[in-house]
Amino acid sequence: SKLNALFAQVESRPSIVAAMKRPAEKTMSWNEYRARFITGPRVARGVEVSQEHAGPLEKAAASGVPTSVLLAIVGVETSFGANVGTHRVVDALSTLAFDYPPRSEFFRGELEQYLLMTRVESLDPLAPRGSYAGAMGIPQFMPSSFNRWAVDGDGDGHRDLWNDWADVFASVANYLEAHGWRTGEPVMVSADAADAR
After folding, report:
1. Which residue pairs from 96-100 have beta carbons closer than 8 angstroms and sit at least 24 positions apart in sequence?
2. How far is CA 43 from the centre of its chain?
3. Which of 11, 52, 58, 77 is catalytic?
């Protein structure tokens, strides 16, 4: 069967299990996060992305999610696509589904969602790259999030969160709206380019 042929090429990665046991994310105060994410180079890249992809950004923002928020999400998640991950998503999800018992049920579900996603999007399941936890694309959607909230922002018939900025911005806006975004409400703490050092 196709699945047997696919899984014959999947590799279990002990380094992924090790990474899950000591995640890069740790509890940080806002000041620690602020220093990490509001940097001169990151702000400059955000300005470039906003200019290079102004049309898709403005179109997605018409939903009510401001351009600044859409940019902030992709800036924090992957430095505007500079770091989308290097692991084959199928390897990451398979490793965690079968070799990481504390979260195996969750990752088996994500693996199933990934396989469905690759079929719907006509992707080679061995090709997409992502994080060690299986998060994908510029906004780092997990497969279940991709299947529920990724949208085709430019009408080309595909949802591409790795290369298509219209899809990226529209999908982030759709995700936030689906999770209760309310247009016009205040942001807890604003960041300003002048804050970057």
Report:
1. 96/16, 96/17, 96/20, 96/133, 96/134, 98/12, 99/12, 99/14, 99/17, 100/16, 100/17, 100/20
2. 19
3. 77
pTM of this prediction exceeds 0.85: yes
12-67 pLDDT tens trace:
998 999 988 876 666 777 778 778 888 889 999 999 999 999 999 999 999 999 99
Checking 17-21 for CB contacts under 8 A at 24+ apart, the result is 17/95, 17/96, 17/99, 17/100, 19/132, 19/133, 20/96, 20/100, 20/103, 20/132, 20/133
| 77 catalytic per annotation | yes
Tokens linked to 66: 């401001």
